[in-house]
Amino acid sequence: MRTFIRRMKSRLPRLVPLFQKAADEYGRPWTLLAAQAYQESHWNRRARSPTGVRGIMMLTLTTAKEMGVTSRLDVEQSIMGGARYLTKLEKRISDDVQGDDRWWYALAAYNVGMGHVRDARKLAEELGLDPNNWLDLKGVLPLLSQKKYYKELKYGYARGTEPVTYVRQIRNYQNIMQAQFARKSGVHAE
Fold this sequence. Notes:
By secondary structure, the chain is mainly α. It is 63% helix and 0% strand.
């Protein structure tokens, strides 16, 4: 957490206008996009994972191309591409999912893939839970790593705990940023 607070002071200020631009274009709080970027790359434009995703929003080559990003290392292109992709995912979520839950589902899909989110919704329903409620879905996603569940699902095995942690961390980072910006700098944090 100390590293996050330190990076909020050192790295985030120059990125805020880019997150605000993406937020304005795609209709979500800039702090949500900034929190997601921190979870993805710690606001490091040169970030690279062993699986080949790159940049501040950690886009795959395929996703970057699909989102019109020509350089994943270009911070503005990466932020705009990540925001565009998150919006695309949100639009693919059932209209039965309402409110902020739509964002949490879209973030989970950004992390684990839309197919696995759909599998988790189906499994939630089979287990008598609400497939349209994040609280229920986050309890079901970890089951996607258990053979007795994933063998019956269309998209099979997934590291289902990862999207739950991913969304929780993003929400925590967003809450901290909103509190810090509202208290210290007077910058509107939504």
